[in-house]
Design goal:
The structure is a homodimer. By secondary structure, chain A is mainly alpha-helical. Chain A is built from 18 helices and no strands. In chain A, helix 6 (about 220-255) packs antiparallel against helix 13 (about 420-445), helix 13 (about 420-445) runs antiparallel to helix 14 (about 450-495) and helix 15 packs across helix 16. The first copy, chain A, starts with a helix and ends in a 5-residue tail after the last helix. The mean pLDDT of chain A is about 90. At the A-B interface, helix 5, helix 11, helix 12, helix 14 and helix 15 of A face helix 5, helix 11, helix 12, helix 14 and helix 15 of B.
């Protein structure tokens, strides 16, 4: 064990405590902001109870699911109990798995709590100007950001300190992933089901405005923002962050004993990332006439700069910290920022691409779709190149340090890219809070100025969301490369135990590898297709329910005083459907992994993971960016350009936005989680694939 | 050299002569069919002259382009002339390159000639029933099919016989590819520009029917069917066929001297594929009330069965022909048929998927698009699995034969899959001929029954096209794997000459390989995006021209007797725009290859080709199938389902079809060619990448 490691365990817990304390402070600050409007309080309570209903239902299913998986994990991992390894390892990994799921659930739950608290306060804040409204939204999001990062650091440090073996961390990470798959994909189906059904019946059929309280789906729509974007996104980034740390630690441990204190370094960087995020969050400000997008982005830059300076200082101070590793991690972070900026170019409505798509809409919806698809494809290029270059540079910088350091460099580039995840989540969770508060301002009749301010905050949320998504997809790409490294070291441990020749790599000319690559590449496409079709089907069910309510509740359509739709019916449909549609997609990816592993063995799995990463990155970037682009093109038209609201261009832009909705909020961001889950399943099952496979 | 080889050269020339003679017979048969309707003759002449104008323009640009490339090829390949290798090799490869371009051009030109001859005759044939109309359309297509296969066999055999070195064949193949890139992508942009512009101004704005002679774009639209689908598709499959044979021969030569007569076997199988296609074409029949889809498919099955039997017989008769190789080639062919059938499942309007998309259209165009995208993604899975399985099986069957035979097995699976390419092209070229004849029947007022028959023939063309496209994409996938093998043997020759260590494969854990994979995967996405945007831009230009004509030519809109639009202006826009929009896309893929090669060296290129193949296959399958699905869903609604013509579902389905048009006819099928071009450029430049690269 490295000498300084106890110090860094201690500092990890201290940093976590600091993060939790700051989160608590921000939570109390948000809570003490005034809310007086009765209508807002009422609607906000409905949103809160809807979100809680979904979370309860989801978690009660997940608890059973997690227990079943924990038993399977216990029986099979890290090696089947009948093979007579240490049973303590099997117990540890099963417990680590459960802790991973529990911490993910806690972070999601608290995020929802504060988001549903902040939305009403931000709405009322908007009546006093942009400054208070912005701060409430941002600080509400920051509570989530701090909790997620705190929980992941706490969990990783605690598990490793107790068991001492980083392989067990893969179990912890798998816990986080399996929950994220449900939270992100399930939440994504929920939110888009409600959004699409509300739009179709409200805006399109009846011509009533967005967030009109007559619409039975309106509460479900607002609930969706919380369960999909806040809880889902939090679980997703918790998962990525844990996976990045776990794979870096697995590799670091396999290197230990040399000149460098690699395990300590991973913790040190994670701690400093958390500290930098706290500083970035604490300094976020906006003037009375300030630009919220600029405020959000500038706190990201502050965090980045602080992280680079602090890690440089730490690298200079602590013995056994290598400047090469610092370089790799800095490259990762900088490339993350660059990916974010290029993504921004494709989705920001002050840049040419959004305008071009808006102008194409004047020729009809087919052109909205075609140009969005085309620019979405092109938008994937900079991020793919960025990931490719950062992996190549990190590898090249660290390779001279010795055997295995090159891949450790790549994993540290991922840790670097995710170091400011606390800040990223704060920005990301800000979005749904102000989106909700815009709805509340409308429903509470807070006046035009408050709605205008809310709109401005909401639009900033959309722009920033595109950037943070580019960031998180990039980080996932690098993480999964290091998971591939982790898989290889796990598979080699199993091969060594079985007395078989070790893997030296995965040669694409080997037929099993190639076989794996092709099938792996098809999985993200099928996975996202299943989610999109799930949203589709579920939205049809909700539309039918809304029609039923409009037809059977007298006075609802006309907006008669005191007539209230049955909001909970729609919430119920969204909840049930989300879980029902998600399970086949999740199962499909896991079953495909098992098939490939048991047919082609570890070589095929190596190829499978590569194919999965590559097509997953491409499709995730394409769908997230195309979706953001269509959304902002619609907003651009609605701001009075290319004919403005009600024009043919507007109708086309609305269709583009509807196509983009499940792209950017359901399928695109869920692919990340799908990739991580598949990678972890592969690493964990490597022993079995080594023992039983047809061609391997 | 193998003893039997002169025999097979002789047989190759004999088979080619037979194919040409049969093509001549079919051509004369088509030509002697009656055409009397004056209006049809007039329109048909316009189409012919438009197609010829495009071909002339295209070929005059291409001739210059080909000469420039030939000079570059001469200077640099197979090794730079200043390095003092045999200058004769450089001369040979440059000449081979030019022969490749010339034969591709000849095949395209004659295909256009016969297609523009057959369309009017098939239209008049329809007045006598489905039997004559079908035969004219099919035999017209068969002329093209026979010529393409004959030219490729002739070219490959002649080049190899003269120079004796299969590496030179890569130059021939590159000639075929570089022309195919122009013909397929340029033709694809041409055809969709005209199609979309004609639909937008005609059907949508004025409400006049398809193929209405008042529309200035109507002739360009019909010309497009010929230049995109006949000439482009012929060049594309000529390219794939040549590439499959060339890479199999490069690998076969590197194996020679052992127990097996591999080079002879490649020729023997190619000859028997041609013979089987001739038999399949000769036996194609339809009853007076027959089903044209069944007729087309059953001749495919006849050809498949004949090929399997003939090759089995040859394998039994000739010494040094291995049953293992026969197995690999049969697996390839059978998997090709299976890919075709699964593709059919997703695009045939008697199967559930087309119906589902049609039903989704009732909820609005966003649902048409979303469900089409989702099923398009899913439709890629069976083909990806099929290619993966056939590669794995072919490899496993042939690996016991010795070092290098496994990859030869994969290349023979590709040869097997493409063996019936003569039949495939006949079916494929049938489509645009009957599509044209449908238009002519409309313009010539041939009566409802003739239009109904033409419609039925056209619809069969669409269904069969989906199958043949699945087939050609699958074959391209396998071919490119063997091109990867060819690249490795070329790179190793260069490495050996430079005294550097040889490549043993491409390990995905190597950073340069991974770097290449990520960038390679982004290229097909960007390439297809550029083509889609090209169609978009060019269609806007043509729409503007149509509006100008409607506004400035008195009586045109109203259909006044004797007023004729300026058809040639639209043809001109389509021609100029197609070439202008295509060049940046082609250059982008070649420049990316050069960048990756000079940055990462041969390892990075290996990864680049893999990424390119994988994402290229995925996107090509997705776009071709989604496009076919939307097209047939629209036809399904127009047949009176889900509300029928004029309903909201119909409007949505039309939008889906417009989105799908550039997917299936421009971007999707061009990706094949892009992949082949990039693979050949890589193989040809391997010497340079070995000599000059930063990280390699």
């Amino acid at each position: 064990m490295e000498q300084q490691l106890p110090l860094f365990y201690g500092l990890s817990f201290l940093a976590t405590a600091l993060a939790f304390a700051f989160a608590a402070y921000l939570y109390l600050w948000v809570k003490k902001q005034r809310t007086e409007n009765a209508r807002i309080l009422e609607v906000s309570a409905l949103i809160k109870s809807g979100a809680n209903a979904f979370m309860r239902r989801e978690y009660s299913i997940l608890a059973k699911f997690a227990l079943v998986i924990a038993v399977i994990v216990f029986v099979l991992l890290p090696s089947p109990i009948w093979q007579g390894g240490s049973i303590l390892d099997n117990v540890s990994i099963a417990i680590a798995y459960l802790i991973g799921t529990a911490l993910s659930a806690v972070a999601g739950k608290i995020g929802i709590l504060v988001a549903t608290l902040a939305n009403s306060r931000a709405a009322e804040g908007a009546t006093h100007g942009i400054k208070p409204a912005f701060l409430i939204g941002f600080r509400g999001g920051a509570v989530m950001g701090l909790l997620v990062v705190g929980c992941s650091l706490l969990g990783v440090a605690a598990v490793l300190m107790v068991v001492g073996d980083a392989t067990i961390l893969l179990g912890f990470s798998f816990g986080a992933s399996s929950l994220a798959l449900f939270a992100k994909a399930g939440g994504g189906i929920f939110t888009k089901t409600a959004d699409i059904a509300a739009d179709l019946t409200g805006k399109v059929e009846l011509g009533i405005p967005e967030d009109d309280p007559r619409n039975p789906a309106v509460i479900a729509d607002n609930v969706g923002d919380n369960v999909g974007d806040v809880a889902g996104m939090g679980a997703d980034l918790f998962d990525s962050n844990v996976a990045a740390m776990a794979s870096a630690l697995v590799i670091a441990q396999s290197l230990s004993g040399g000149l460098y204190n690699n395990v300590s370094m991973v913790f040190c960087y994670a701690i400093l990332g958390l500290v930098a995020s706290i500083i970035g969050i604490a300094t976020a400000r906006i003037g009375q006439h300030g630009n919220p997008t600029r405020a959000l982005n500038s706190s990201t830059y502050v965090t980045t700069a602080v992280f680079l300076v602090l890690t440089a200082a730490a690298t200079a101070v602590f013995p056994g910290f290598s400047w090469r590793i610092w370089g790799a991690s800095s490259v990762g972070l900088l490339v993350g920022v660059i990916i974010g900026l290029t993504t921004d170019y494709f989705t920001d409505d002050t840049k040419p691409i959004v305008k071009k798509v808006a102008e194409a809409s004047a020729s009809g919806p087919a052109f909205t779709v075609l140009s969005g698809v085309a620019y979405g494809f092109i938008s994937a290029l900079p991020a793919m190149v960025g990931i490719a270059v950062s992996a190549l540079v990190a590898y090249t910088i660290c390779a001279p340090m010795g055997e295995g350091y090159a891949i450790f460099g790549i994993s540290m580039a991922a840790v670097g890219m995710l170091s400011i995840v606390g800040m990223i989540i704060s920005n990301d969770a800000y979005g749904p809070i102000v989106d909700n508060s815009r709805g509340l301002a409308e429903m509470g009749n807070l006046g035009e100025e408050a709605i205008r301010i809310s709109d401005e905050l909401d639009s900033a949320g959309n722009t920033v969301k595109a950037v943070t998504k580019g960031f998180s997809i990039g980080a996932a790409g690098l993480t999964v490369i290091s998971l591939l490294g982790a898989f290889m070291s796990e598979a080699n441990a199993a091969l060594a135990a079985a007395g078989k020749p070790l893997l030296e790599g995965f040669d694409i000319m080997a037929p099993t590898v190639f076989f794996g690559v092709l099938i792996g590449a098809a999985i993200p496409a099928v996975f996202s297709a299943m989610l999109i079709l799930g949203v589709d089907k579920n939205a049809q069910r909700m539309v039918a329910e809304i029609h039923r309510q409009f037809n059977s509740i007298p006075g609802l359509k006309e907006g008669k005083e005191g007539v209230v739709p049955e909001y909970d019916k729609c919430i119920d449909i969204a909840t049930t459907g989300a879980l029902r549609e998600l399970i086949p997609a999740g199962l499909m990816s896991i079953v495909a992994t098992l098939l490939v592993g048991f047919i082609g063995g570890p070589q095929a799995i190596g190829g499978f993971l590569l194919g999965n990463i590559v097509s997953g990155l491409l499709l995730a970037l394409f769908m997230s960016n195309a979706g953001g682009l269509w959304d902002n093109s619609k907003k651009y038209v609605e701001a009075g350009n290319v004919g403005g609201k009600g024009s043919n261009a507007h109708k086309s832009a609305v269709i583009g936005d509807t196509v983009g909705d499940p792209f950017k909020d359901t399928a695109g961001p869920s692919i990340n989680t799908q990739i991580t889950v598949v990678s972890l399943v592969s690493s964990l099952l490597s022993t079995l694939f080594v023992a039983f496979s047809i061609f391997g």
